[in-house]
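Let's practice the habit of predicting before peeking. Look at the sequence and jot down your guess about where helices and strands might fall. Then scroll down.
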Amino acid sequence: MPRGMHRVMSRVITQVVAGDDRRRVLVLLAALSAGMLTALAPTTPASALVGQEPSEEPLRIGGAAAPVEGEAGEAEGMEPDTPSATSGPERGEVGGDAGGSLQPPGAGRQETAADPDPATLFGEAVQAYESGEYGLAVSRFRQLAEIGPENASAQYNLGNALLRSGELGGAIAAYRRARSLAPRDEDVLANLQFARTSARDAIAAPDPGAVPRTLVFWHFGFSRVERIWIAVVAGLAFWSAIALVLLRRAAATRRWLAAVGGVVLIAMLASLAFDWWRGASVAVVLAPQVDARTAPEASGVVRFKLHAGTEVRALEERGDWILIALPDGERGWIESRFVERTV
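Done guessing? Here is the structure:
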């Protein structure tokens, strides 16, 4: 342990053992906050992106999609833009604003002989996408998404490939995951909204309305990684201000800093805790048609039918069945193999 860190730890232990009750509580709360933030931090670096090109010339995999007709591989007349070479980064490209600068997808992760090469996978995926082999493109982009699960670009590209291959439900699920990782990305939002127009069922997606999105803007407007970093900064500001106050260097600005830092820290921790509690609360229908039954068994009476691309709330999972709910409150059990759960 470095000498400076050793002195800090010695002072912390001294405060806990010999300090008054107030300082003991504050030190223990600080340690608890640090432990929670460490546990919540993602194992994959936020900057690790899928989609490095050997030439470092970025490729744009789909912008806002536009409807076309008479072309193979389209999903209900929908087609994302095909990849094209560009001279610089644009929104919607692999490694663009959705995730940051280009880096190999496993940055900071120890490679093994069995690990696929991300650059090779990306090249094969783009080549397959451009040549119309969308099944192969889906397979390669899915591998890249598994390598970088915290990468919005990987999920976005997978959604485009799925949409071109006619898998509407899978595309919507991938776009939803990309939106959770890059909630302000315009291309992700546009393609998700565009894919939804091909869903057969006129059922509203289980997304929060305008009021909660405005009142709790930090929860819906920032990704999980961003909220973790905001919590870290707010926690540092809060405990620094508290330390200055305890050292009798109190001032109005320091008290305000402590108050603001504490409020922001609590808001971020509550937001992250809500994400953990909610989990994958949405189910997207993958099959062309699925029956919703009164009981989690094949002999249950069919209450209603759903079609590919429909998004519903997932309430409970029992064996191979999931209880889902529609916006009007109607419920039914569907087989889990026909849906994909996501955020």
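How did you do? Residues 252-278 form the longest helix (27 residues).
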